[in-house]
Design a protein that fits this description.
There is one protein chain. This protein is an alpha+beta fold and about 280 residues long. The chain has 7 helices and 11 strands. The longest helix has 20 residues. The radius of gyration is 20 Å and the shape is elongated. The model has no long low-confidence stretch (mean pLDDT about 95). The protein binds a DNA duplex (16 and 16 nucleotides) through helix 6.
DNA sequence: CACGTCACCTGCGTGC
DNA sequence: TGCACGCAGGTGACGT
C-alpha cells in the first residue's frame, strides 16, 4: 500500500482522530490513552519481541505521540516505541472496542482513558500478512538504515544531486530503495519520474543539475498532493484517499499522457510494474 | 556494487 | 461455472 502519503494519513488518524470515521461522532485520537490489553491473532505479524514480552511491556503504558518515518508508523510510549510497517496491504483502524473484529485483523490493542468509560481498539489489519510490528527501546535499531525524509528541510535539490551522482543505478529501483530515500513506493516513484520527465531506466549519475532539481521538486509535489488527498485507494483496499483519481502514469497503461497525449507504456523494472510516457520521458542514451 | 530471482501471503480480474 | 494465471501500494535473502 501504503507509501509515505498513505502512512502519513494513517499516522494522523491515530494522532488526532477522524471526524469522518465509521461513527457519527468520528473517532478520537489515541494520544494520552493507555493500553489495557493486547492480542496477537497472527503471531508472525510481531517481529520483535516475543508475544509474552510484547504484552508485558505494553499493557499499562500511555501513548505519548504518533509520528511517521519513511513508511513506518512510530508510536511512542513512555518507555518503549511501537513501530508498524504496513507493507503491501496493512492498515490501522481506531474504533470502539465493542465493534466487531474484521476479517484479516492480525493484532489489536485495547485502550482506556483516565476518567473515561469509553474504551477504544487499535486494530492492525493485513490481508497479505506482510506487515510487521516491533516493540523496541531504541527506534533507531529499526529505522537507522533509512535514507533522508523527502519532505524535511535537510533534503535539498543539491543533496539529491549529490546522492544521485554517487551511483550508476537506474532511477526507478534507486528511488524505491528506502536507504536512498525514505517513503517512496511504486506509485509515487512512477508519478515523480513522469512529472520530472525522466525515464525510469536513466542511470542516476547521468542526471544533470537541472534534472535533479526537477526530480526533487516532483518528488515533493507528488508526495504533498498525495497527503492532501489522504493518499490513494486502489484495488479492493479502500483507505479513504482519492489520489488514485489523479494519477498521471501509474496504472494508466494505454491511456493518454496528461501532458502530451502519447499512450502510457508499462515495462517491468526490478519485478515492479513501471509506467511512463515514451515522449515526455525519452529513453536515456 | 549492480542486478536478477525467489520468498513471504491473499484476493481480485481476466480469459479459456 | 470452474480454474488456471497474472497482477497487486514492500522488503529481504540469496546467487551471479
Amino acid at each position: 500500500m501504503p507509501e509515505l502519503p498513505e502512512v502519513e494519513t494513517v499516522a494522523r488518524r491515530l494522532r488526532i482522530g477522524d471526524t469522518k470515521g465509521s461513527y457519527s461522532f468520528g473517532t478520537p485520537g489515541l494520544i494520552g490513552w493507555r493500553v489495557s490489553d493486547v492480542n496477537l491473532i497472527w503471531a508472525r505479524s510481531l517481529f520483535q519481541p516475543d508475544p509474552a514480552e510484547f504484552a508485558r511491556r505494553l499493557v499499562g503504558q500511555t501513548l505519548g505521540n504518533v509520528s511517521r518515518r519513511g513508511k513506518f508508523i512510530v508510536m511512542t510510549f513512555a518507555s518503549s516505541t511501537l513501530l508498524a510497517h504496513l507493507r503491501m496491504s496493512g492498515d490501522l483502524r481506531v474504533e470502539l472496542d465493542t465493534a466487531p473484529l474484521q476479517p484479516h485483523d492480525r493484532a489489536w490493542l485495547a485502550f482506556d482513558h483516565p476518567g473515561d468509560t469509553m474504551r477504544l481498539r487499535l486494530a492492525f489489519n493485513d490481508p497479505r500478512k506482510f506487515g510487521r510490528l516491533w516493540l523496541v527501546d531504541d527506534p533507531q535499531t529499526v529505522l537507522g538504515g533509512l535514507g533522508p525524509e523527502p519532505l524535511d528541510p535537510p533534503f535539498t535539490a543539491g543533496e539529491l544531486y549529490l546522492r544521485l551522482h554517487a551511483t550508476t543505478r537506474q532511477l526507478k529501483p534507486l528511488l524505491l530503495d528506502q536507504s536512498f530515500l525514505a517513503g517512496l513506493g511504486n506509485i509515487y516513484t512512477d508519478e515523480a519520474l513522469h512529472l520530472a520527465r525522466l525515464h525510469p531506466l536513466t542511470p542516476a549519475n547521468r542526471v544533470t543539475t537541472e534534472q535533479a532539481g526537477a526530480l526533487w521538486a516532483a518528488i515533493r509535489a507528488v508526495l504533498e498532493e498525495g497527503i492532501r488527498r489522504n493518499g490513494a485507494s486502489i484495488d479492493w483496499v479502500y483507505r479513504g484517499g482519492d489520489f488514485q483519481n489523479y494519477f498521471r502514469a501509474y496504472q494508466r497503461t494505454g491511456q493518454p499522457c496528461p501532458a502530451c497525449g502519447t499512450l502510457i507504456q508499462r515495462i517491468v523494472v526490478g519485478q515492479r510494474g513501471t509506467h511512463f510516457c515514451p515522449t515526455c520521458q525519452p529513453a536515456p542514451g
